[in-house]
Amino acid sequence: MTALKGILVGIWRGLDGLRKLLHLILLVVIFGAIVWAASSSTPTVPDRAALVVKPQGRIVEQLSGDPVQRALENAQGQQRQQTRLWDLVAAIRAAATDNRIRVLVLRLDDMQGAGLPELQELARAIRKFRASGKPVIAYGTAYDQDQYYLAAQADEIYLDPTGYVMIEGYSSYPLYFKGLLQKLGVDMNVFRVGKFKSAVEIFTRDDMSKADKEQSQAYLGVLWSNYQQGVTSARKLPAGAIESYVDSLSQTISAANGNAAKVALQAKLVTALAGKLQVQRKLIGLVGEDEATGSYNRISAEDYARIVDTKKLHDGGGDARIGVIVASGDIQDGRQPPGAIGGKSLSRLILQAQMDKSIKAVVLRVDSPGGSVAASEEIYQQLEALRAAGKPLVVSMGDLAASGGYYISAPANQIWASPATLTGSIGIFAIIPTINQTLSKIGVSVDGVGTTPLAGALSMVRPLSSEASQLVKSQIDRGYQEFVDRVASGRRETPQQIDAIAQGRVWAGADARRIGLVDHLGTLEDAVKAAARLAKIRKYQVKFVRPHLTWTEELFQQTQVRAAAEAVSLFRAGDRSSGLAEVASRLDPMAHDLKQLARLSVPGHVYAYCFCSAASH
Question: For residues 617 and 610, what is the distance between their CA atoms, to the nearest angstrom?
């Protein structure tokens, strides 16, 4: 018995020792993760370097999706689908006063577009960099319209001899689904208020309505005028030079035997024609050679932005802060991930800013076509509470702040917009598709009984009854009136005055300023300065308000991102599937619009949404 007891004690001690060893190993792993996260997240800047702005995908106000997924895509060698605007702006601004950064390099080949207001924000940062006396150099194999707007801000623009500068102007050519829906037997029961509320027309018409053509032509004209002015001013070209270049492009390229690069050079859109290696040699002369790569010393804007963020954390800079909250994407009910606006999730951020005593005023950066009226109202009420707590609220509008995007802007003390912002669209609608005819085409019928005229009245498989139609119409009419009242209160106008400029009409920012929907034209920086004046503070820091994470959550997220990236990189050899993700990410326009229909046709829901757009390529 004593021997057995000794054996059991020995086993227990062995297990306990093993437990302690595993515990020690776990602690070492966690400590290693901390060191790894800290060391791998802090890039270094060479003593003489170029800051390289090389956006990939679309430039956006807020990255969508989760960081782990983005890390996986990056580890697989996939091109990023999005680049955050404010990372680029912060990097360029900080580099202007950094003696280590000698030149700003714009490499725009992988950029897949941006709204004109986002381009203007970046252009302003580039101009400030140039004002520091440091050169800005752009080079690329070709430039499309959005890429060229940024390239035009450079001191020197280099274009590959085989390349081109393709500027087209702005257009709006939506897909219309009436014929398809009729063939499928789908009845679109549409309720809307607003002569210009064209969001529903892609499902009810075969062509663009006269009202939509009128408003589209107006705001597209403002965008085109702003684009031309921004380029001709930067390149010191005569007024009308860009329009002349576009109008004669087919003839001039034909006359040049297809040499589009030569035509761009003759039009003074570029400084010189040069290949990548030629430009690299020039940059090596400015900042020195990186012995590891044989190219010039450099740091990417994304890495440099991380350095800037880290420095801000260490520097402190006083207690007063202006909080910036980004509201980007469709407005939806409940909590939503980044890239979408959730009624609950955005309201929580607003409350977070309201309760933060260091935040003296709030700037809401809106880039949204709208969405759910219920979610918009939830956000509106939280913004009203913020103001009631004594904190000034300034709205800064990005590319699009229309319909529900304007609804949540209404409580602001001041509204700032770019001249090219698309805003307004003060209107409301509901869509209820019914498919009873679709079912009859395949021999399926619907019949039954209900306890009241409204029982089952909103079912998709039955025709919409007159009682249900009347119910929805009354909701739409009331919703529009409430929208107008909200705007009238914020703009200090009468509902009748707002109704006259509402009616679902989309306005460019310059016109919105003229009719009183916008107070001032300017950038996010201008809006932040205005918020500081309203809060009566001179010294302050700008703080982007994001969801609170505990220290362990932050560490876990960083470690998870890096671990995911590292794990995938181990299996990259021989992988040939990375191209599939890029193909899948390019949504077919028809599938995208039908997906919107599915989301905007929930029975009992009404929407303030704008399908306004301005395609440049």
Answer: 20
Backbone angles phi, psi at 357, to 5 degrees: -65, -20
User: Active site residue: 403, 409, 425, 601, which one?
Assistant: 403
Among 398, 332, 397, residue whose Cα is nearest residue 370: 332
Return the closest-CA partner of residue 321 out of 280, 362, 290, 292.
Answer: 362
- Which tokens belong to 604? 């009992």
Q: Please name each of the domains of the chain with its CATH number.
A: 49-165+270-306 (3.90.226.10), 317-430+474-544 (3.90.226.10)
The two structure tokens encoding residue 200: 């529903």
| Strands lying side by side in the sheet with 341-342 | 187-193, 428-434, 607-609, 370-372, 331-332, 341-342
Greatest CA separation for the chain:
106
Q: pLDDT (tens digit, 9 = 90+) per residue, 310-337?
A: 776 655 556 799 999 999 999 999 999 9
Q: What is the pTM of this model?
A: 0.84
Q: What is the pLDDT of residues 80-135, one digit of tens each?
A: 889 999 999 999 999 999 999 999 999 999 999 999 999 999 999 999 999 999 99
Reduced to 3 states (helix: H, G, I; strand: E, B; else coil), residue 98 is coil
* Structure confidence at residue 43 (pLDDT): 78
Is residue 197 flagged as an active site residue?
yes
**Tokens encoding 84:** 């955050």
Cβ-contact 354, 391 below 8 angstroms: yes
Q: In sequence order, which residues have a C-beta less than 8 Å from that of residue 11 and are 6 or more positions away?
A: none
- The one catalytic residue in 134, 172, 197, 368 is 197
Instruction: Tell me whether residue 54 is one of the annotated catalytic residues.
Output: no
User: Crossing angle of helices 85-95/301-315, nearest 10°?
Assistant: 70
In angstroms, the Cα distances linking 612 to 215, 235, 581, 585, 589 are 10, 30, 28, 22, 14
CA separation, residue 531 to residues 177, 202, 321, 537 (Å): 45, 39, 10, 9
**CA dist 132 → 106, 426, 506 (Å):** 17, 43, 39
CB crowding 79-109: b at 16 or more within 10 Å, else e:
ebbbbbbbbbbbbbbbbbebebbbbbbbbbb
φ/ψ (deg, to 5) at 300: -75, 155
SS3 state at 427: coil
